[in-house]
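It is worth pausing here to work through a concrete case rather than discussing structure prediction in the abstract. The textbook approach is simple: state the sequence, then state the predicted structure, then interpret. We follow exactly that order.
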Amino acid sequence: RVFRSSPQFGVTLFTYELLQRLFFVDFGGS
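Step two, the predicted structure:
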């Protein structure tokens, strides 16, 4: 399968990066 035709791959990366940023902000901010 090509990643271009599978939007789920992009959504997964976006969600993973978003969660990682949220955790990083929580640990750094507090």
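Step three, interpretation. The longest helix spans residues 7-29. The mean pLDDT is 79.
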